[in-house]
TrEMBL record:
Transmembrane segments: none annotated. It comes from Streptomyces castrisilvae. Its cofactor is FAD. Keywords: Electron transport, FAD, Flavoprotein, Transport. InterPro entries: DHS-like_NAD/FAD-binding_dom, ETF_a/b_N, ETF_a/FixB, ETF_asu_C, ETF_asu_C_CS, Rossmann-like_a/b/a_fold. The electron transfer flavoprotein serves as a specific electron acceptor for other dehydrogenases. It transfers the electrons to the main respiratory chain via ETF-ubiquinone oxidoreductase (ETF dehydrogenase). Residues 4-183 form the Electron transfer flavoprotein alpha/beta-subunit N-terminal domain. This is Electron transfer flavoprotein subunit alpha/FixB family protein. It comes from the Bacteria. Belongs to the ETF alpha-subunit/FixB family. Heterodimer of an alpha and a beta subunit.
Length: 318
């Protein structure tokens, strides 16, 4: 069976959920070979093996932390050369997408980004994407070279599938470009204690209808009752009510949670672009004609300041 390279997103050895989802998808098209780089790379092996990695290639060097993405591209290319895979899969994080693009250029391959599903096809993997600001759902395959595909978080269920997970050290020689851009400092964002927006199983978002930064407490309370992340429309972000890091949409983040709750959001095409692939969509809007109601599974026509607190209270009592 052909091998499929899976780029591992981890924090000091703790594998992040989108990588485990990638392993589920990788198994549909071949045998996953995971590539883990940087501090704690070897510590990822057990989790990766439990989810189907037949081999785990690891490398650690100061370059991975001290410089921007090129050292990681060098390492992934070394893995690519060593494995000759049928496809390369990466999560759709900002960093991994840059790594994917650079690798695709180097190996002369086509690339598909932000896939939301992946299946085996006669002529290579077929990826499902949401395209043109979510106006279309497309199925595509790479027709040149070995497909490089990035997959959005929450695109597949994590499934355990124990495999050998043999750990092998990857030999990497860094290119001249590797040390071209040095990281001078890193400032971790203050933690809200909520899940990361793009990885959360539930996202609760507020828009212009929230009508003020202080009123976002209503949205946050519902999010906390559900263990959800908080999102915001661009109108709410532009008004300075919520940080841009939480913006959902074409010029914000793209999310695909199990449940997306939009309150006081009209459903403009640019917002839909970032949330339309959510599995279940709920909207609260006082205008029954709001376009968001065209795509919801459940809609509540009402004032969010009446509806959302009642919902929060109901959930908290359960
Ligand atoms: P509005 O469209 O003003 O809708 C507010 C809604 O709240 C209305 O439907 C109203 O009925 C409802 N409402 C008001 N009060 C209440 C209440 N008390 N209870 C219940 N409902 C209430 N937008 C994004 O979101 N993300 C993007 O990434 C993005 N990128 C863009 C990129 C470009 C190039 C452009 C041109 C636009 C982009 N936009 C984006 C902006 C987008 O076009 C819309 O302007 C924006 O999404 C509107 O945000 P909204 O739904 O919160 O506000």
């Amino acid at each position: 069976m052909a091998e499929v390279l899976v780029y591992v997103d981890h924090v000091d050895g703790a594998v992040r959920k989108p990588t485990l989802e990638l392993l589920t998808l990788a198994r549909r098209i071949g045998e996953p070979v995971a590539v883990a780089l940087g501090n704690g790379a070897a510590d990822t092996a057990a989790a990766l093996a439990e989810h189907g990695a037949v081999r785990v290639l690891t490398a650690d060097a100061p370059e991975f932390a001290d410089y921007l993405v090129v050292p990681k591209v060098d390492a992934l290319q070394a893995a690519y050369d060593a494995v000759s895979p049928a496809a390369v899969l990466l999560p759709s994080s900002a960093e991994a997408k840059e790594i994917a693009a650079r690798l695709a250029v180097r190996i002369g391959s086509g690339i598909i980004t932000d896939a939301v599903d992946l299946e085996a096809g006669d002529q290579g993997p077929v990826a499902t994407q949401s395209a043109f600001a979510a106006s279309f759902t497309t199925k595509s395959r790479v027709s040149k070279g070995v497909p490089v595909i990035t997959v959005k978080p929450n695109s597949a269920a994590v499934e355990a599938a124990p495999a050998a997970g043999a750990v092998e050290a990857l030999t990497v020689s860094f290119s001249e470009q590797a040390t071209g851009t040095k990281v001078l400092s890193r400032t971790p964002r203050e933690s809200t204690g909520r899940p990361e927006l793009t990885e959360a199983a539930i996202v609760v978002s507020g828009g212009r209808g929230v009508n003020g930064a202080e009123n976002f407490a209503v949205i946050e309370a519902l999010a906390d009752s559900l263990g959800a992340a908080v999102g915001a429309s661009r109108a709410a972000v532009d008004a300075g009510w919520y940080p841009h890091t939480n913006q959902v949409g074409q010029t914000g983040k793209s999310v695909s949670p199990q449940l997306y709750i939009a309150s006081g959001i009209s459903g403009a095409i640019q917002h839909r672009a970032g949330m339309q692939t959510s599995k279940t969509i709920v909207a609260v809007n006082k205008d029954s004609e709001a376009p968001i109601f065209d795509l919801v599974d459940y809609g509540v026509v009402g004032d969010l300041f009446d509806v959302v607190p009642q919902l929060t209270e109901e959930i908290n009592t359960r």
